[in-house]
Amino acid sequence: MSKFPPIPLGRADWARAWRGLAAPVTAVARGRRRPLRLLVSVPVFLLSLLVWYLVARVATYGLFWNADTDHAESWGGPTLAGAWLVHALIGLALVLAALGLLRPLSRVLARPTT
Question: Mind telling me which residue stretches traverse the membrane in this protein (predicted)?
Answer without folding.
Answer: 38-64, 84-102
